Batch of 3 targets.
Target 1
Amino acid sequence: MIEMKNVSKKYKDKVALSNCNLQIPKGQVIGLFGANGAGKTTFMKCLMSYLAFDGEITLDGEKIDGKNISRLSFATGDHSFFPSITADDHKRFYKMQFPKFQEKRYDALMEFFELPAKKKIGAFSLGQQNQFEVVLAISQGAEYVIMDEPFAGNDVFNREDFYEVLMSVLTKDETVIISTHLIEEIADYIDRAILIRKGEIIDDLLVAEIKSSGKTLIEIVKEKYDYRADRIKKAVDQIK
């Protein structure tokens, strides 16, 4: 289990995270939602120990560091691959670095996305690069797969098919945390929704309970974020 206790992060005078407390067990698919600048990416980078922060984050009671970081993987829009080498080169490198690397899963996902194995990653399109980043993260053999806007540059058909593939290949011990604005698209694939607003975790929701309430996830999110539908009419009226 990953546990966050009183985690806060500042960039100079700007508060990015404020007193966040959370438990993330194995075996869940979690959606991380919030507006631009809410703190989602900072939240994920703190989980990965990429940033210094106040508070404590532990994995099964131990600090996340070089000894256990391989139990987490991160698919980021900043990209963590080597652009000057091929996909096949990455595969060989990952097999050497990660003893639990899942070669069968990697090969299947490469075929699914129709990614060229012998082409340098720097020559991939942006959509292909994002797909490859996800392939590496899911195939690393990590117990916690963290994905920050993983589907940027991908069309809706690729995204929907990928959700189905992802749900099919995950084991009961794997946890996936997905940060995305595509709330309605992934609502049927997640177990839990964590809502961040201005650096604070404002709610932690079980999707099964949302469905039993008769509301949709997007309706709940709009309520939590005080969404004002009237601002559209106001803007249109001002333009006219």
Target 2
Amino acid sequence: MAALTLDRWKIAVGDGQPLLVIAGVNVLESEALALEVGRHLQAVCAELGLPYVFKGSYDKANRSSIASYRGPGLTEGLRILAEVKRQLDVPIATDVHTPEEAEAVAAVADIVQIPAFLCRQTDLVVAAARATRAAGGWLHVKKGQFLAPWDARNIVSKVREAAPGADFTILCERGASFGYNNLVVDMLGIGEMKKLGVPVTIDATHAVQLPGADPRTGGASTGGRREGVSVIAKAAVASGADGVFLEFHPDPDKALCDAPSCLPLAEAPALLATLKAIHAAVRP
């Protein structure tokens, strides 16, 4: 079992710590939207006494279609994230897709995130681990949809070998491929990954995806079951998850990426209050 701290932000995750909330928008659409969502979630978490990290992706490289919206790109995206950090005074989480981007991302993001599809890309894991360790942040690695929970030990080993010393890795559960156009979350997997000695979060937003099954585009984008986000989040926290990863939008149906899996921003207070209560109930 483990706990990690980000001293400069006075937040921690893991054993004996409050439920960590990594939440924001899926992909950055504009600076104004990022600030609106971040400011609202920051206020909710402050009222609940939960540590908050703003999340937004500058690029979504793993798209169903070449025509799908990917985001503003590295330069503009990092500028927006830096501005959110400056104005709201909150830590930042974002995805990295190539080894060449790692240092630039780690200079802005306090949590560098490796997408599930890329969790076995050794060059990326090594570059992200070294850049994150040098910057003093956390590395948040999503377990691939193709991996058993215990096989995530190889990810942890790569990070520890690439950047030896104090641990700074968090693993994230987001479901496993199950049949056609579907993902299923095995809640027992959360405990299995925690046996590796790292904190574990749940990406409840992407766990409800229906890959390649958005009826609005005839399968050219990912569908989802928005109503299942809260179900999976609550079940995962009850199963021992140390943090939650959630994506919101003021008008989810108009979100430019993964709209069917996105939660209305107005639902954040009730959901996070419930998750906090569950977390308190299951912890010794």
Target 3
Amino acid sequence: MIDVLVVGGGPVGLVTALHAQAAGLQVEVLEPRRTPIDKACGEALMPAAIAALARLGVHPSGMPLHGIRYVSGSRRAEARFPHASGLGVRRLELQRILSATAAERGIPVHRERAERIRADDHGVAVGARHARYLVGADGLHSLVRRAAGLDRPTRAPARYGQRQHFRGVPWTELIEVHWSPEAEVYVTPVGPDEFGVAVLSTRRGPWTEQLAGFPAVRSLIGDAAPTSPVRGAGPLRQRATAVARGRIALVGDAAGYIDALTGEGLSIGFAASSALVDCLRTDRLSDYPAAYRRVTWRSQAVTRGVLAMSRVPALRRTIVPLACALPPVYRGVVGLLAG
């Protein structure tokens, strides 16, 4: 019986495994998909996420990001990260470097699905594998969350994301968020000659139709050639009744997800994985829910607040004007997002 079995070989699952190994725990990972695993995401790593990876000796390559700009028509509000830069990183690049680091450090990653999950007071079993603890890091639609009986229905309007990359020199060194009455477009430089464009909306539709609502972004893209297929994800809002039960814990999107609006998914996931491993190392998984709240509440409060405003048309129209009119407040919000 090993100490920790992590289900999910995405960035948060691999970071959890790296933390566990560094804490002296015997850890293995189950991931049925072939590496590198791509995913529709904004691909902006906040400064806190960069620092978390650096503490593990992981240094992905990408494009420095110095802040966040909100755009609506002719209005623009921008704020710089106060202490350090973020990084625009292709999801494939992040996956490659984390997978390579796990392999170099001898962490087994098995090409297997998590099936027949069983747990008792002494440990957990997944198929023929046994561990003292099971960690679900298997994303929005987590099998582990469902198997543990921790799924919680949500009544919030569903939001969906789509993303594509383009070849061209990025016109910004910031994360650029363009607002419309129904959706947002996120532009993230991921290299000196490549940028990603992501759309988040409550309305499902083809990529070209979604992008048509943002003529300014389409003009900036111009005739830049796509460098990746369109990928989608959603519904984004997922809830869990708890982040731990018995000897099973959830981390990353599997632990519940509010929205990609503030771009903090990986920052929260990395912080929670470190807190979780501290609890596993001392055999006190019961401490994890409080630790999870401690490391995520600020980010979640900001995301909930902005998302609540964005759902009310009259308030949504005020988001960018308020950011323009109240620069200190906007800088404070961006500072919170930076971590």
